Amino acid sequence: MGLVVQKFGGTSVGSIERIKNVANRVIDTVQNGDKVVVVVSAMGKSTDQLVSMASGITKKPSNREMDMLLSTGEQVTISLLAMALQEQGYEAVSLTGWQAGIYTEACHSNARISNFQEKKISKHLAEGKIAIVAGFQGVTNDNEITTLGRGGSDTTAVALAAGLNADRCDIFTDVTGVFTTDPRVVKEARKLNSISYDEMLELANLGAGVLHPRAVEFAKNYQVKLTVRSSMVEEEGTMIEEEVSVEENLVVRGLAFESNVTKISVCNMPNNLSGLSNLFTTLAANNINVDIIIQNVSDSENTNISFSIHSEKLAETLDVLEENKSELQFEEIRYETGLSKVSIVGSGMISNPGVAGQMFKVLSDQGIFIKMVSTSEIKVSTVLDQSDMVKAVEVLHEAFDLSNIKTPQVNA
Ligand code: ADP
Ligand code: ASP
Ligand code: MG
To answer: Which in 52, 83, 203, 325 has the greatest CB count within 10 A?
Structure first.
């Protein structure tokens, strides 16, 4: 008898009918002889609805109260799913993050899991019950409810799989696996049979919403056998694993993109030893997450520094820079909103020079202007006008031959 963690996302539990469908999937697994821990998200778009209710009251809700509010969404689903299983004669117990022993750092709205007391779940499993755990939430050592960041139910599932030493963790969602890029945006996107932890981590961090980045981090660190598959269609999904098979070893394996990027330029800062560190430690101290950084030394005395941020942080970043203007000694700030980031990812880049050049050429042939660039061993990211984003993804998908991946559609 094995132990399986199954996670069902918002769309998969979006109605009473779908919750009953999930109950049937769980029952199939139980009938196969496995013990099951189920992690669920809030129903449909209910987390978004809760966010919008809060914004009807205040523009600046406290993070503590937001966590209190958003964590209710998952609690609705766990109880309904437990009832659906009980109705069919199966013993099931619903558990909030706290009841499941999920402890986090004391950081509201984007907490990291710090400790998992597995006995709280294993006790129920030993009694023959199906444990149904609320995703996306935990509790601090001071008994404060926290959430793990949007999309964080994936992380709950993988963390439980790691902590309980499960045989596998299946993420059931509204697509049939991880695709070469978002199949809702590029219709030529192809499902990958497998992808490495490192590539998946880059894609997730660069905007591929199919998996929460910290879920992939956990899976890699604890070597969790992780699969993404459909909750609605019986089809093999995508395995996320350490190494992927040679025949699929493409140079570029996937494309990710995100909008709401803003570029900020801090102009004419003194070009001295501590200038850069002062600027970025000031931003970090104010919780401003900086992405790509470019420095242009215009002459020996002055330098211009540009960096990208999420557009949501623009007003806050400008305030922080203005407040510290005299200490940082810059002359002027310029910024450009309405940008996006398009990235290519693939482990094959390590041993194939020229991939970045090829990417830039494809974009320039289309008249798409690149405003910023950053690279790692296995990715190249470009910042472009938002209006060029979808076109850029489409032409890059074609240029790197991603529509021609062979993925046999095998029934599970
Ligand atoms: P869930 O509610 O099940 O967690 P999400 O909406 O968080 O589902 O994630 C699934 C969505 O991720 C898909 O509907 C798809 O639009 C999006 N997505 C983005 N990039 C990819 C990709 N590379 N492969 C598959 N889906 C992707
Ligand atoms: N319900 C949360 C969200 O919508 C967590 C999740 O679905 O993973 O972000
Ligand atoms: Mg998700």
So the answer is: 203
Alpha-carbon dihedral sign for residues 380, 384, 387, 391: negative
Q: What is the DSSP string of 190-227?
A: -B-SEEEHHHHHHHHHTT-TTS-HHHHHHHHHHT--EE
**Is residue 236 in a domain?**
no
> What is the best residue among 154, 173, 211, 400 to mutate for testing ligand 1's pocket, by most ligand atoms within 8 Å of CB?
173
Range 202-213 average pLDDT: 97
203 confidence band (pLDDT: 50, 70, 90): very high
**Enclosing domain of residue 47:** 3-174
Determine if residue 238 is labeled as part of a ligand binding site. Answer: no
**Radius of gyration of the chain measured on its C-alpha atoms:** 23
Q: How far is CA 141 from CA 133, 136, 146, 215, in A?
A: 19, 17, 11, 22
Q: 174, 200, 219 — which closes off a domain?
A: 174
Query: 224-273: per-residue pLDDT in tens?
Result: 999 999 999 999 999 999 987 655 667 899 999 999 999 999 999 988 88
CATH code assigned at 97:
3.40.1160.10
Total number of domains constituting the chain: 2
Per the listing, tokens 């609705």 go with: 76
Over the stretch 88-140, which tens digit does the pLDDT of each residue have?
999 999 999 999 999 999 999 999 999 999 999 999 999 999 999 999 999 99
Mean pLDDT for all residues in the chain: 94
Residue 215 placed within a domain: no
The span from the CA of 267 to the CA of 305, in Å, is: 7
Ligand nearest to the backbone CA of 345: 1
Between the CA of 136 and the centroid of ligand 2 the distance, in Å, is 6
pLDDT at 409 over 50: no
Q: Would residue 30 count as lying in a domain?
A: yes
Choosing from 184, 185, 210, 342 the residue with most ligand 1 atoms within 8 A of its CB, the one to mutate for a pocket test is 210
Query: Which residue has its alpha carbon closest to ligand 2 atom 8?
Result: 151
Q: Is 151 in the pocket of ligand 2 (CB under 6 A)?
A: yes
CATH number assigned to the domain comprising residue 343: 3.30.2130.10
